[in-house]
Fold this sequence. Notes:
By secondary structure, the chain is mainly beta. The protein has 2 domains: 14-166; 179-307, no CATH class. It is built from 4 helices and 21 strands. It has helices at 120-127, 153-166, 264-270, 292-307; strands at residues 14-20, 23-28, 31-33, 39-47, 53-63, 74-79, 84-88, 102-104, 107-118, 130-136, 144-148, 179-185, 188-193, 196-197, 202-211, 216-225, 235-240, 243-248, 257-260, 276-281, 284-289. The strands form 4 sheets. Strands 1, 2, 3, 4, 5, 8 and 9 form a 7-stranded antiparallel β-sheet that branches. A hairpin with a 2-residue loop joins strand 8 and strand 9 (107-118). It is elongated.
Amino acid sequence: MMCLSVGANAQDLLRYNYKKNGYTYTGAERQRVEGSTPMMLKLNRIIFPEGDKIYKLRVDFEDASAWKVPKNADFKATTSSGRTVLLTNEADEPTAVSPNGFNKNGKKVFWNYAEYYMEQADLDKMLEGVTSVEATKRFSSDGKINVSYKNNEFTSALKKEYEAIKNAPAPTTELGKHLKSVSDQNNNRLLETEQVSVSSQVAVALVYLYYAESNSENYDLNLYLQGTTVPYGNSITMTTPSGNMVFSQEKDLAAGRAICYPTIDQLKAMCKGVSKITVQTVSGPVTFNVDSATFGKTIETLYNSIQTASIL
């Protein structure tokens, strides 16, 4: 796989990018679109083994109540040139995104979702500029959502996601079976990858946690450092091409184990490589030198493995 590109302190809108069973899956992070009905957009692209491609637009409609978008429900976008793009909802499963709602600014809200597939031609029309959207949320006389956009809010978000997908390098190797476990409880999700060695003394693994009550996610980076004890609270420094990232030992662990909590953008930055890991022990700093490209490719592989089953 090619490495995701990101700066250590910059948001990267590329959510995932991997090849599996001959298909290439590339997706962007959600972008919020304000309006009378706020929406979260998430653009995904699938390239088939023979080279054809299709896009999937995931739309989460934010509302104070829960409802399920019917399969084949319409989504109509009117462009600035007066053209119409008509899509239909292909999703027919209960949402995994906080199905009981989540707290936002002291209020409970729900994300009621639909997924619309489209060809490049339809996407290109919407990228011209969308002035209004009409979406069916239920098959009834009052089951329509109508939103008008005066400042190109919808297309601005869509363009950012499309650019992230379009500029993503093509993965060259297949994503293997690196996801070790998937656990769901009370609408929360826990994903764990296998442990992979990056040198004779260092191995890594990732853990993903989705919290339904807050509709948020966290990542744990597990480090296996041969024969080294890192006391709770001590520093863990990763040397990357763009500079150092400093974390803390987040748990009181036995020798050879350390855990830190990187953000998603910090994980993406690690895909560019990590050449040194320096940990603070009771006897002073200990440095592990690793091959930067090996570390980066390993993190990218584990990260993309998690994205195959992540919630957001």
